[in-house]
Amino acid sequence: MILYTVVPYENIFPFKPDKKIQYLQVEHGFVEVSKGEEGTTVKRLFSTLPSDYLNPKYTPGSVFKGY
Amino acid sequence: MFCEFENFENENTNQDGQEQNNPGINQDQLEQIKDIGSVTPAKGKHLIHCLTIVGQVEGHYILPPQNKTTKYEHVIPQLVAIEEDPSIEGLIIILNTVGGDVEAGLAIAELIAGMKKPTVSLVLGGGHSIGVPLAVSAKRSFIAPSATMTIHPVRMSGLVMGVPQTLSYIEKMQERIIRFVSDNSNISPERFKDLMMATGQLVSDVGTVLDGEAAVREGLIDQLGNLSDALGCLYDLIEKGKEEA
Question: How many A×B Cβ pairs under 8 Å?
Answer without folding.
Answer: 48
